[in-house]
Design a protein that fits this description.
Layout lengths: L2 H32 L9 E5 L9 H11 L3 E3 L16 H12 L6 E4 L10 H6 L1 H5 L5 E4 L4 H11 L3 E3 L7 H6 L11 H10 L1 E8 L8 E9 H6 L12 E6 L5 H13 L7 E4 L9 H17 L4 E3 L12 E3 L2 E6 L6 E5 L5
Parallel strand pairs: 1-2, 1-3, 3-4, 4-5, 7-8, 8-9, 9-10
Antiparallel strand pairs: 5-11, 6-10, 6-13, 7-12, 12-13
Organism: Mixta theicola
Protein name: LD-carboxypeptidase
GO biological process, one term: proteolysis
């Protein structure tokens, strides 16, 4: 079997996999529509943004699409006064707003408007308030990209699960209002709730080294690679020995990815149960560019002893499948199959 044929087979399988998940999300949508009076109409989504500033006009659009799905939107915790660095607010103000939301017992769902940068700066205030936050009712945080810094704190220190998934401003429903937006267009709001309530099953998980064919299981962790890397050798770094780590990124060249993965390889503390790589290439990347990123990941996989998988169906691309962080994940591989399958149970506290 030629290398080119394998690549084409992989791409066609990924497309088919994404299509089946979209169909599944549509089926779930009809169920939600029928039960809106009992479920969605009683569910309030609190919006928050703790990183880069956002376009104020997007909030009314978010409210529109969530309302159309039967959900209520609350903007109590949106407090934008952009700084010279382009953050939503000062570090302290962003931290205090987030802490207020995390300790508000009326909040169950906290959905991030956007990512960007700057969430890591909030750690001193978050860790100072750790006891207060831990004593509050658990919240389900939803988002990705720079939100990884918040997920890391919530998952590893507060011990709450969360959802690595589409932002409130970038999803299938928002794409219907603005066709120019391409990030997360194949993943709906309803699919996130489906994942929370029913768990997930993804196929087309490509094993990249020999240990990967044995399968893997552990507690899911990670998110944006740059944020995970930023925590190395800090007092905030977690123990990865029982973790399956997902990694994705954007605006990282193949050379930069290669350099960073050598750092991951050389780390004395990054020894996870397994790693799953998502999308790193840009949305309009050519097939050759996609192959180059895959080659870098393949080379890394051959240098490490733990299982490495490739699943470019999450991250800053058109497909951003939801994952439940701080929850069990199981990867199984069959001897007669080119790809493995991944499952997670419904989210539970």
């Amino acid at each position: 079997m030629s290398y080119s044929f394998i690549i084409l087979l992989m791409l066609s399988t990924l497309i088919a996999d994404s299509s089946s998940l979209i169909t599944l999300a549509e089926d779930t949508l009809s169920e939600h529509v029928e039960a809106r009076d009992d479920t969605a109409a009683k569910t309030k989504i609190y919006l928050i943004s703790s990183s880069s500033q956002y376009d104020e006009s997007v909030i009314s659009k978010i409210r529109q699409v969530f309302t159309q799905q039967g959900y209520l939107i609350d903007t109590t915790y949106l407090n934008q006064k952009p700084t010279p660095l382009g953050y939503v607010n000062t570090d302290e103000n962003r931290a205090q707003t987030l802490i207020q939301a995390l300790t508000d017992d009326n909040v169950k769902y906290l959905w991030f408007v956007r990512g960007g940068s700057g969430a890591l700066n909030l750690y001193p205030w978050l860790y100072a308030s750790q006891h207060q936050i831990s004593a509050s009712s658990p919240k389900i945080l939803i988002g990705f990209s720079d939100v990884t810094a918040i997920h890391h704190y919530i998952n590893n220190d507060i011990q709450w699960p969360s959802v690595h998934g589409v932002l409130a401003s970038h999803n299938q429903e928002m794409h219907e209002l603005n066709r120019l937006e391409k990030v997360g267009v194949y993943n709906s709001i309803q699919q996130v709730f489906q994942a929370i309530q029913e768990g997930v099953t993804y196929t087309a998980i490509e094993p990249m080294n020999r240990p990967a064919f044995e399968g893997a299981q552990g507690i899911l962790n990670g998110g944006n690679m740059t944020l995970v890397q930023s925590l190395f050798s800090t007092r905030y770094e977690t123990d990865y020995s029982d973790k399956v780590v997902i990694l994705e990124d954007v605006d990282v060249t193949s050379r930069q990815l290669d350099r960073t993965l050598h750092q991951f390889e050389y780390s004395k503390t990054f020894l996870p149960k397994a790693v799953i790589f998502g999308q790193f290439y840009r949305i309009n990347a050519t097939l050759n560019e996609k192959e180059l990123y895959r080659d870098v990941i393949q080379a890394f996989a051959e240098r490490v002893d733990y299982p490495v998988y490739y699943y470019p169906a999450f991250g800053h691309g058109m497909t951003n499948q939801p994952f439940m962080l701080a929850q069990q994940i199981n990867i199984e591989c069959g001897d007669d199959y080119l790809y493995c399958s991944l499952t997670q149970p419904p989210l539970s506290f």
